[in-house]
Design a protein that fits this description.
The chain has 98 residues and is an alpha+beta fold. The chain contains three helices and three strands. It is 54% helix and 19% strand.
Length: 98
């Protein structure tokens, strides 16, 4: 019964053109659950569009470190989440002051 509901919901979202958006938001939520704690909640995935993941970062020094780690992060995220990740962009977290 639950499989039928899942399948029906998926079909409805696809017909409405919302399935891809749902999957993107689901990936962002899962990424934040997995990675935000590793960085003491100083990062947050905020957008995933056209294969580009945008991550807000609280501290400039952490942003520099993440930029150096980017190739490895891309590979790990692809493997762990099975997404077609092309690149990661970093931006300053809104409201952060350092």
């Amino acid at each position: 019964m639950m499989e039928r509901i899942d399948s029906t919901l998926k079909d409805i979202l696809k017909r409405m053109g919302l399935w891809e958006r749902y999957m993107q938001e689901n990936f962002i939520r899962e990424f934040n659950e997995e990675y935000a704690a590793r960085f003491d909640y100083n990062i947050e995935a905020i957008k995933f569009r056209k294969g580009i993941l945008t991550i807000a970062v609280k501290h400039p020094a952490l942003m520099n470190n993440l930029m150096m780690m980017k190739p490895g992060m891309i590979k790990k995220v692809r493997e762990k989440f099975g997404v077609a990740l092309k690149d990661i962009k970093f931006t300053r977290m809104k409201g952060s002051r350092t």
